[in-house]
Amino acid sequence: MMRPRRPRKPVADHCYFCKSNTEPSYKEAVTLSKFISERGKLLAQSKTGICSTHQRSLTRATKHARFMAILPFIVRA
Hints:
With 77 residues, the protein is mostly helical. 39% of the residues lie in helices and 0% in strands.
């Protein structure tokens, strides 16, 4: 017997940064927080719809922002 499939969540078709013609910056905490889960983890490229080039630079910018104490390392529940 097969289980019914869950409906998939819609994924963005195009990269957010390619659309707006910008690069991820550690100074823009609001923009970075769009791609971080409620627990403080980076969301996967498949969930956010970001291209691989911007996913790598987003990772670096997030790590830089965490080191500069702009973003928290973890969010406690």
